[in-house]
Fold each of these.
Amino acid sequence: METDIERAGRLILASKYVVGLTGAGVSVESGIRPFRGPGGLWTEYGEPPMDGYQRFLANPKADWEQRLKPGGYRRELFETLEVAEPNPAHNALAELEELGILRYLITQNMDNLHRAAGSKKVAEIHGNFSKLRCIQCSSRYERGEISLETLPPHCPRCGGMIKADTVMFGEPIPLDVLRICEEETSQSDCMLLVGTSAFVYPAAGFPQEVKRRGGALIEVDPYETGLTPVCNISLRGKAGEMLPRLLDCIKVKLHRGEAEPPI
Ligand code: APR
């Protein structure tokens, strides 16, 4: 009896352009809580207001002061982000890229763990907590590059206002990242969904777009998600356990010459 892992491995190797879409679940085994469902931050603290960005624009100094002295969910989240390390799920995705199997990785996570694991082709649709961004010219800076003596800080390039690179509720997704996500999604005939409830748009729309064009969806999640009904294969388990097994299965098939890596 072929296992779901083997079916998923065969489907991935039969696909021409595999793109990954990850959410908070891929980083749970790195000690960062998800937002929804069991153990979710929003489950405990409640969803933050949907107009976070408008509140930032109304009083950027106050928002920056809160960000530098965080309370509530922010304090817990920021503390875990500072110390988190990649887990076997992040490492497996980086190796799938290196093998030429995973063409691009779209992540909703701002935790920088895919990059830390060695993934290169990464689009961080909700930004990166270790970076700052100018809201006028979209220039991005490492945190240490910008003085926070005067709040809000301003862009050394264009003078625009600088905020954290992470995308707030109510904030438009930066166009440079959005374009990459849409471009990669438009080429994809198989999307590997890992640890996302597929609740938040525009990210949740990408797998639907792949499906609409006749592509396949594989999800990795211990629980059912909003996309389970349209997934070709659901690997029901933790990402840190399932993805290394999927990687091993694919490597065995490649070794046996059952398939060629796409590139
Ligand atoms: N491995 C894989 N998946 C897991 C694991 C695990 N170890 N633990 C939990 N999950 C799953 C949950 O079952 C859930 O389906 O991860 C998913 C996490 O869903 P959310 O918490 O809703 O996270 P995400 O989909 O990334 O949320 C999208 O919402 O709040 C905003 O900006 C925030 O980027 C975030 C966006």
Amino acid sequence: MRKFTFLSLMMVLAVVCIFACTPSTSSSTDARENKSTKQSKEPVTRALAAAYSPFFSFGVAVNRNHVTQEDNPGANIVQQHFSVLTAENDMKWESIQPSEKRFTFKGSDALVSFAEKYDKELIGHVFVWHQQTPDWVFEDEEGNFVSREVLLQRMRDHIFTLAGRYENAIKGWDVVNEALNEDGSLRKSKWQQIIGDDFIEKAFEYAAEAAPNAALYYNDYNLFKAEKMDGAIALAKRLKAKGIRIDGIGIQAHYSNEPPLEELEQSIQKVINAGFKIMITELDLTVLKFPDEDKVGADITLDFAFQEEYDPYKNGISEASHQKLATAYIDLFRLFLKYHEHIDRVTLWGVSDKDTWRNYWPMKGRTDYPLLFDRKHQAKDFVDDLIALAESANKIN
Ligand code: GLA
């Protein structure tokens, strides 16, 4: 028994030494795995957006509390680290036009003022989507589907009203969101059922007319999957062949801390070969297991019943999982830097772990850690590494 205890003690000492004795360097993954702190000891004073500005713009999705500065620490992070903002919810159809012709611009106006005040660019998200769009859009007074003409008119009015109001404020619009199935075929959404397959063309036509100075994007999740990206590229090429403007493909990038690096790189290469710009539009990396691996993605209707086993880090993330997250972020940004000439922007989907949608999707009530700033608004330790990565790439360039 005594022998066993002594052996155990030696093993513990050896493990402690691995963490404490190895010098850390910001460029080596192995060394990073040995860091024991999860937050930067000093506040990060250099800014992510500034470091990455030679390569692409660095954005974030903001919520109402950032914009009103009720979440003051969150708003400070936005001001310091990000140069381009997307409204997490405030420009979606249900927020802008909850009932017919009743437009509510409170949240979006506040965002535009915030962006002006702090000199940030803005991305408009989103004109046409099958989610977070109220039923009235597709229905008549009896609750039956409206005609193609009526729905096209509603789409046109919505796009023109929104794009017109923010004509000088918005740099680019997500025109259509998530119109594809996982195999790259067209989703049978209400838009598709009522208008037909050309609803996407119509949305881009209207957007090009209403927002002549803004870039226009098709945006979707799981575009690392070859079939789905093939579908997105085919769609973009169809538009282009018809003379309809589309400027880029938005890759949402809701991944885990084991992101699909190789597949993503192949997808990026395909977009480049097809001649479209790339935006990484909604980056976050969950550290939690997905309850059904076949459904990984960002289908917001998923709602699994809460189970303890899927919420292992409610009192703090494990070191191993945190290090996997750090490595995943570094690897992804290395990849983005490699293709920086074709990537216009990388946007994080949320400011801090405190208010990420990942805490309630696909299972409500979990404690997730997918972002760059923790629940106390502290930069995670690898934020410094991400900044150093861009700075050294800039020196080489
Ligand atoms: C999709 C949408 C976003 C957002 C996320 C989850 O990716 O494009 O607007 O709703 O789901 O928050």
